[in-house]
Design a protein that fits this description.
By secondary structure, the chain is an all-alpha fold. The protein has three helices and no strands. Helix content is 72%, strand content 0%. The chain starts with a helix and ends in an 18-residue tail after the last helix.
Amino acid sequence: MGKMYRYLYIITFLFFLIWMVFLDTHSLKIHQELNQEIDKLEDQKKELIDLIEKDKISIQQLNSKDSLERFARENYGHKKEKETIFYIEFQDSL
């Protein structure tokens, strides 16, 4: 009779272990997937914080009218009245 209870306890423990590792809504597999997603989101957050810092620096540099005008010319092709802009492209000859 004692061996039967021992096997019952072992079977119950194994069932519980399998349930907790694979089948439960709070299983280890789901926790692992969520931790991977958290790591991915934290990496995205770091990248966005770096981008925000770069944008803040750009905004600070664009406070003067001259730097704002230069930025508009270089990035958006803006020009003054009666001014002609020529775009020169260089090709590498390999």
